[in-house]
Amino acid sequence: MTKIIALVIGFALLCLIPIAPARAATFSVCTLTDLTNAITTANSNTQADVINFNCSATLIFTSQFTILDDGAGNGITINANGNTVIFDEVGDDNRFFVVDTGASLELNGLTLQNGNAAGGGAIVNIVGGTLTISNSTFSGNSASTDGGAIFNYGSLTISNSTFSGNSATFGGAIFNSDRNLTISNSTFSGNSASNDGGAIHSSMSSFLTISNSTFFGNSATDEGGAIFNSGFLTISNSTFSGNSATNGGVIFSNFGFLTISNSTFSGNSATDGGAIFNDLGTVSSQDSHYENNNCVGTITDNGGNTRFDAITSAGCPGAVVIITPPSAPSEPTVTVLGCALDSTDGVEVANAPDNTYCRVLMKNGGVVSYSGAIPAQLIGLGVILAVDVYRLQGGATQNTFPDYARVCLAGQGRLFYMDSRNAPRVSIELASETDGNLTCGWIPAPGTLILTN
After folding, report:
1. Which residues are registered as beta bridge partners of 332?
2. N or C end of the chain: which has fewer CB within 10 A?
């Protein structure tokens, strides 16, 4: 009985002892052997691991490191710690890091140079991986296919870093594959692509945000001397100079959505679109300056833009094209409220001829009819309301309006239009206006209107 009481008391006392939380493991390294041991240990525990260099060193890699998911959501951080630390590579088909699914890697203050692989010459970030780059330099890395420095399938954040002299077939410095990439306070110079995207190739459904950054002297043989974009690209407070390509000296926007503000484009060149080549996407600019870009390209002017160009090639458009919606008629001749085929709840059509109908395709993110009619990238923004506007006369479909028609959808957001005269239909963002709780735009022909967040 005495033993039992002692055990109970001992267990009770044990329960009262606070359990120390797991702390980050910190490693101090200088050599490649030190780094190898630190990463091996870090991959096998569930702590947040920090690897600090205690010396300046050049490490020659002979194989890549794979950063693994520790199962606890913690990652590995490698700091130069104020030292000059260079990762170099000898031989072909050898990169520095692969960030596995669920894993995360942060690099701070390092230089990664001369990496080489089929894709992602320095780093590959796998789907579900998280990669953070700060205060670092990527130089002279190359890939035979995509992403001379980085091939990104996951989440990638870059700040205060430099990418120079990297090369690949697509995306001389970075290939961003349908994922999120954020770049701030960074410089991309002298990167090249033998096909598209001299510095960055960002594919469909990607979200690329660039701020306070500089792109100069990047080139592509075909399209997008600095950037090839077919996803969602937002640029602010950035400078682009001396970039070149056959089409789109700075940016080639292919079915993409591009928004520019407070930025400068100067001395860029291309056969078509020295600054921007817009291929069936939407490009809008505000408070930005365009100077000596050979041919600027066609953009939507949202105000505050300036331009000074010396035209150096025949057939150049000759000016920034300002795209504005037509003026609203003082009193619409015909107003259609509601549809003949189904309820439109929150749709108004004005200045449209008789026999104009509406069909709700999506509402509040849900499909009402015709699944697949709305592009995935717009669904990804969050669809408030999507409506098909069409005309029937004598049982036959009519593809035109006598004049522009004003369509208003209930809610506040971005308004996109897919012209029914195009096959396949391609979405473009409309200049819009608000009317109470409605978002309104003018369309030249029947088509699909999509209001997104």
Report:
1. none
2. N
Strand order in the sheet with 162-164: 57-61, 85-89, 110-113, 137-139, 162-164, 187-189, 214-216, 239-241, 264-266, 289-291, 306-308
- Among 380, 444, 435, residue whose Cα is nearest residue 417: 444
pLDDT cut 90: percent of the chain above it: 45
> How much is the average pLDDT of 55-83?
93
Phi-psi domain of 233 (left: phi exceeds 0; alpha: psi -120 through 50; beta: other): beta
Q: For residue 60, which of 83, 27, 36 has the smallest C-alpha distance?
A: 36
Which tens digits make up the pLDDT trace of 277-334?
A: 888 878 888 888 888 776 655 677 777 877 765 544 344 443 344 343 444 444 333 3
Q: What's 310's DSSP letter?
A: -
Identify the helix (H) or strand (E) that includes residue 35: helix 32-43
Q: Which residue has the higher pLDDT, 93 or 364?
A: 364
Number of neighbouring beta carbons within 10 Å of residue 247: 22
With tokens 């300046």, the residue in question is: 56
SS3 annotation, 241-282: ECCECCECCCEEEECCEEEEECCEEECCECCECCCEEEECCE
Percent residues over pLDDT 70 in the chain: 81
Q: How many CB atoms lie within 10 A of CB 73?
A: 12
Q: Measured between alpha carbons, how far is residue 414 from residues 261, 322, 384, 385, 428 in Å?
A: 17, 19, 10, 11, 11
Query: Contacts from 358-362 at CB under 8 Å and sequence distance 24+?
Result: 358/387, 358/388, 358/389, 358/390, 359/387, 359/388, 359/390, 360/385, 360/386, 360/387, 361/386, 361/387, 361/388, 361/448, 362/386, 362/450
- Give 299's contacts (C-beta < 8 A, 6+ positions apart): 260, 276, 278, 283, 284, 285, 305, 320, 321, 323
Could you tell me the end-to-end alpha-carbon distance of the chain, in angstroms, rounded to an integer? 70
- The more confidently predicted of residues 262 and 438 is 262
Sequence-separated (6 or more) residues with CB below 8 Å from residue 420:
390, 399, 445, 446, 447, 448
Q: Is 11 exposed, middle or buried (0-12, 13-18, 19+ CB in 10 A)?
A: exposed
CA pair distance 108, 27, nearest whole angstrom: 15
Range in 71-80, 144-153, 271-280, 351-360 the model is least confident about: 351-360
452: tokens are 């997104």
Is the pLDDT reported for residue 156 higher than 60?
A: yes
Q: What digits encode the pLDDT tens for the residues 347-394?
A: 666 656 666 777 788 888 888 777 778 888 888 889 988 888 877 766
